[in-house]
């Protein structure tokens, strides 16, 4: 598949794999305390272990529990048994055909936010990072993908997310206690907990 014909999640996967190869296994990320080796193992387990995928979904919804812990144990086992270069190669190859994440419509739905966030987790842990110039079509995808995280971020206080690249476009949740303005990539990172590196305005 040529680079020009890839979907946005597939392009993000390929660029993330390139970056992981370049920075090595011990580089920091913006995904909590994870190193690049831990982040790479997480994605490979997510791709290849349906039993772990369910737990990750619960964890992102703020539930966590034994299923999420099970997935993280599989990540630890993968890192202990497999060289980093092979883990990155598996990440680059993508999910096997039998994986839910390989289903044509389901994969992009679940992977758009996942790969945008984790690509930026590695990019924005580097000292010289800058926001990328993304197309309107990509920003529209990220805007749609941010809805899941926005509901959790709104909490009881409520939230308004307002796009600065598309006048008049906003998402209101609950009592709208805070207003956060920015481009969709930045809003996605903010609602996904990367607030220290999301370039947004909060009122």
Overall description:
- Helix 2 (36-48) crosses helix 3, helix 2 (36-48) crosses helix 4 and helix 7 (136-154) runs parallel beside helix 8.
- The chain is α+β, with helices and mostly antiparallel strands and 203 residues long.
- The model has no long low-confidence stretch (mean pLDDT 92).
- The chain is globular, with a radius of gyration of 17 Å.
- The protein contains 8 helices and 4 strands.
- Strands 2-1-3-4 form a 4-stranded mixed sheet, with helices on one face.
Order of helices and strands: HHHHHHHEEEHE
Average residue-wise pLDDT:
92
Categorize the overall geometry.
globular
Strand order of the largest sheet: 2-1-3-4
How much is the radius of gyration in Å? 17 Å
* Biggest sheet statistics: 4 strands, mixed
SS content category: alpha+beta
What gap, in angstroms, lies between the N and C termini? 44 Å
Tally of strands: 4
Beta-strand content bin: 5-15%
State the helical fraction. 40-55%
Question: How many individual helices?
Answer: 8
Poorly predicted runs are none
